[in-house]
Amino acid sequence: MTFFTQSLRFTLSPRTLRRAVGAAALVLTIGALSPAWAIDARKVVSPGGIEAWLVEDHSIPVLSLSVGFKGGSSLDPVGKEGLATMVAGLLDEGAADLDSQAFRSRLEQKAIDLSFSADKDSFSGSLRTTSDTRDEAFTLFRQAMTEPRFDDEPVERVRDQILTSLTFAQDDPQTIAGEAWDKAAFGDHPYSRPEQGTPTSIKALTRDDLRSFTALQLVRSQMKIGVAGDITPAQLATLLDSTFGTLPATGPATVSVPDVAPKNAGLTVIERDIPQAVAVFGGPGLKREDPDFFAAYVANYILGSGGFSSRLMNEVREKRGLAYSVYNYLYPLDHSALSIGGVATNNARMKDSLDLIKAEMARMAKSGPTQKELDDAKTYLVGAYPLRFTSTGAVASTLTALQMQGYPIEHLYKRNDYIKAVTLADAKRAAARLYNPDALTIVVVGKPAGLSSNAR
Fold first, then answer.
1. Fold of the 4-244 domain
2. CA-CA distance, 140 to 43, in Å (whole number)?
3. Which pLDDT score is estimated for 454?
4. Which residues, including other chains, have CB under 8 Å from residue 60's CB and lie 6 or more apart?
5. What are the boundaries of each domain within the chain?
6. b/e burial code for range 99-122 (CB count within 10 A of at least 16 → b)
7. Of the candidates 127, 132, 65, which has an alpha carbon nearest to the alpha carbon of residue 91?
8. Start-end of H helices in 291-346
C-alpha cells in the first residue's frame, strides 16, 4: 500500500486557545513539549488517487468525515426544482439490501450520525462515528451514495415532508422575502429558483429523476473530502478507496451554470397583513479570489456582520430602537458575489430603518472605518478563528469548505495573516468598491408605511 501525506502546522497562542477549548469535544493536536498549541492538517492521497484533508487526533475515539460535491440545486433541471433537496432527504432512507427501517435502525444501534444536505452550489454529506464502528459506518456511507434504494414508502414520505415545509414557507415572511430577492436579483438564472422547489416541481419528481441526480452529481471529479479525529493517514487512505472508489470518475456532460451579477432591481413590496415587516437588501459583493476580499471582509464586519459591535446594529437598534436585529454579510457564490443583509421591524418604522441602513452604507463607502474600528475588528476576527475548530465535525466541514472554495491547505494558517495585513487604506478602498446604496435590490414583506414597489 502506498499513500501520500503533506503536513502543515497551524499554531495558536495558549491564551487564545483556552477560550475555545472549553467547548471542544475534540479538535486540537497538542504538542506536549511545545510552547504553543497546534492543529495539524495533512493531505492524504489514497492508492487509488482519492485526496482528503485530515486533522488526526487520538485523544478520544471519535471520527468525523465531510464530503462535498460541486453542483447543488443550481443544477436542478427546470421544472424539477427541489431535486437536490429531495435526494439529500432520501440517501439515508435505505441502501443496498437494507430498507429504510433497517438502515435507520443500524445507524441508531451503532450511534452513527449520517446525513446529507444541498445548497445552491454543492451537495454535501457528513458522517460521525466512534472508532469501534468506523468500518461499518464508512460502509453504510458508501452504500448510501452508491446504492440508494429510493423505495416507494420513503420517497412519498419525504415528498410529503417537503410539501408540508413548503406550505408553511408560503406564510413565512423571511422565506417570501428571500425567494423574491433571489428572483429580482437573478432573473432567469438558476440562482433565482427555490432550492426546496415548489409544490408543482416536488410532485413531479420521479425515482428516475432521483437516480439520475446521483449518477450526474455524485462523481469523484467534483468531490472534496475533510476528515478529523481518531484515524491515521494509512487507515484513512484505505477507507477512501473502499468508500469513494466505486463512485463514477466523472458524470455525463451537463449544462454549466454561468456567472451572473445581481441586478439593480430597486424596491419591491409584497403586501402581507402582518404587524412586523421583513426586508432583505443586497447588491454586488466581491469574490474570494478578489485581491480586496479580506479587506472587504473586515470592512463588512465593521458595518454589518459584527453583531452588537457593528455600525448597523449600533445606529439602527442601539441608538434609535428601530429594529431588534439588522445585519449585512458577504456571500460569495461559485458564480456570483453578493453583499446581502436584512432587517425586521414594525411597519411604521421600516422606511426609517432602510433609510438609515443606506446612509450608513454611503458613509462607509465615502470615509471607510476608523483606525480603532479596524483594529478592534481585526483583533476579534483573528481571536475568534479557533472557535471554528471546536469539534471533529466542525473541523471536517471546515476542511471540506476550504477545498470547495478553492483555497490551498496553507490557508488554515495563513488566513489570520491575511486579516492582520489589512490596512486602513485597504479597508477604505474595499468599502468604496463594496457599498453603493443606489445599487441595492430591496424586498419588503408586510405593509410598510411610506414604501411602494419600484420606489428608491
1. Cytochrome Bc1 Complex; Chain A, domain 1 (3.30.830)
2. 24
3. 80
4. 25, 26, 230
5. 4-244, 266-387+408-446
6. bbeebbebbeeeebebebebbbbb
7. 127
8. 293-300, 311-312
Cell readout for 62 is 471519535
**Ramachandran assignment for 197, one of left (phi > 0), alpha (psi -120 to 50 degrees), beta (any other):** left
What is the CATH number assigned to the segment(s) 266-387+408-446? 3.30.830.10
The CA angle 283-179-405, to the nearest 5 degrees, is 60
- Kindly report, residue by residue over 431-444, the tens digit of the pLDDT: 999 999 999 999 99
How would you write 164-184 as a 3-class SS string? HHHHHHCCCHHHHHHHHHHHH
What whole-number distance in Å separates Cα of residue 390 and Cα of residue 329? Answer: 23
Contact 380, 359 (CB under 8 A): no
CA gap 203, 197 in Å, rounded: 10
Q: What does pTM read for this prediction?
A: 0.89
Q: Calculate helix-pair angle for 293-300, 371-384, nearest 10 degrees.
A: 100
pLDDT digits (tens, 9 = 90+) for 91-147: 999 999 999 999 999 999 999 999 999 999 999 999 999 999 999 999 999 999 999
